[in-house]
Amino acid sequence: MSILKVTRLGHPVLREVTKEISVKDLKTPTMQKFIDDMVETMKEYDGVGLAADQVFSSLQVAVLEVADNPRYPNKAQVPLTVLVNPKITPLSDEMEEDWEGCLSIPDLRGRVPRYKSVHVHALDRRGKKLDFFAHDFHARVIQHEFDHLNGKVYLDRMRDLSTLSFLQEFARYWMGK
Ligand SMILES: [Zn+2]
User: How far from 101 is each of 4, 8, 108, 109, CA to CA, in Å?
Assistant: First the structure.
């Protein structure tokens, strides 16, 4: 497995709408290795999620996992999940604001409104159908990654930029708020 280079904000690939993957392409050894590399890369940088366009590949695949993560302590755990061609539907209009960061926007945090609960349809890495509900931080991570696959980043979703903070200032002035 290899650690992939992560795209940073400003690279045009982050603003593209990614392409769907056919089940046939998904099952190729190249794509399976790419997914392994995405997982490895997410873990290496302590991410809770990573979308393919964040590693220069404009395809509809995202990985996520919330374990004991130093960047996001005290969050409910989410097992390692691979989402291919995901579609999400909010379960209600209820939204919640919380802090987000992004491996493509290093060293920053900001408060982002997200739907509290979403219904997710996707394929897993073998092409099997996934159909599940996600709530709270799990739903937040999925919406963040889904946005990446549609050329959006969390800054686009902030109501205003007044909470945008570098990590050091975040720890000093905002942690726990
Ligand atoms: Zn991100």
Answer: 19, 13, 6, 5
What are the pLDDT digits (tens) for 82-119? 999 999 999 999 999 999 999 999 999 999 999 999 99
42-70, pLDDT tens digit by residue? 999 999 999 999 999 999 999 999 998 88
Q: Which of 20, 44, 97, 145 is catalytic?
A: 145
Q: Give residues with Cβ within 8 angstroms of 130, minimum separation 6.
A: 81, 83, 120, 121, 122, 123, 124
| Ligand 1 centroid to residue 84 C-alpha, Å | 16
Picking from 93, 82, 110, 94, the residue whose alpha carbon sits closest to that of residue 169 is 110
Pairing of strands 78-90, 61-66: antiparallel
Beta bridge partners of 82: 63
Active site residue 40: no
Q: Do 108 and 165 meet the contact criterion of CB atoms below 8 Å apart?
A: yes
Chain center to CA of 176: 22
Give residue 21's identity as a one-letter amino acid code: I
Place of tokens 């399976």: 32
Would you put residue 136 in left (φ > 0), alpha (ψ -120 to 50) or beta? left
Yes or no: say if 3 and 41 are a contact pair by the CB < 8 Å rule: yes
